[in-house]
Amino acid sequence: MSELWAHALTWAEVDPARHPFGLDDDAAKELASLVAPLLPSAEVAADDRWRSLDPVTAFLAGRYGRWACGWNWSVGEGDVDGGVVEAWCCASRSVTTPDETAPLVVQALQEWRDWLEDLTERFAALAPPDDAPASSMDARHWERACTRLVTLVADRTHAESGWYGHCTQVLGWFLAYHGVEEDQAQEIIEKAVGGRFDSWIAPDVTTVDAVSSRFARGVGETI
After folding, report:
1. Which of 38, 138, 175, 210 is least enclosed, having the fewest CB within 10 Å?
2. pLDDT value at position 2?
3. Quick one: CA dihedral 112, 113, 119, 122, positive or negative?
């Protein structure tokens, strides 16, 4: 179901400022109790890992917003390839009994949310100095921002299978945070990154520098 696909999430859909969220211990227990009946059996999860968790994802997205679709975007070859969540592995391994599995879902959701909030703080830190408009940022500033974000995502995903998909998504979110239109952002990122990152390989300094330089040049030509 494409509407539940975390790879398609836009910045507007994940921006914590637009989608308030918080769980204390009691709320976390309540959420786990609501998730438990939606979980598949371990046998079903093992046989149909791609769709067996759709009811859980649909419930979380309906309750909190589409950002929650990333709750099971785990590191490596999990339910969704190339993510940052470590609390959850995959349906075929993480699903056991409802009482054991439901709290894991809540923990994974919170880890995903923490990642989004961390990105927001980093985007703000990489903003133009003195609240100047994005168009005033010189090339070195954009290069530095790209380098830091690529390095961050490579580290958080452990540069495992498909990690570069989320990396380009984060770069797109960063540009959206600074007001760059989605179509323009995609063009900038494709020219900068396209084909230069691989699964299971963290990019070396030379590659990151080249991508960051192209990224900065593309932004400069757009804004």
Report:
1. 138
2. 66
3. negative
pLDDT digits (tens, 9 = 90+) for 94-108: 999 999 999 999 999
Q: What is the CB-side half-sphere exposure of residue 202 using CA atoms within 13 A?
A: 12
pLDDT digits (tens, 9 = 90+) for 134-150: 555 678 899 999 999 99
CB 40 within 8 A of CB 53: yes
Query: What are the DSSP calls for 155-216, one per residue?
Result: HHTTT-TTHHHHHHHHHHHHHHHTT--HHHHHHHHHHHHTT--BTTBPPPHHHHHHHHHHHH
Q: How far apart are CA 129 and CA 92, in angstroms?
A: 47
Contact 83, 6 (CB under 8 A): yes
* Number of helical (H) and strand (E) elements in the chain, helices listed first: 10, 0
- Average of per-residue pLDDT values in the chain: 93
| Contact assessment for residue 193 and residue 171, using Cβ atoms and an 8 Å cutoff | yes
Q: What is the pLDDT of residue 154?
A: 98
Statement: the pTM of the whole predicted model exceeds 0.85: yes
Count of other CB atoms within 10 angstroms of residue 175: 28
Q: Which residues contact 124 (CB under 8 A, 6 or more apart)?
A: none
CA 189 – CA 215 distance, rounded (Å): 6
Q: Report residue 77: phi and psi, to 5°.
A: -90, 65
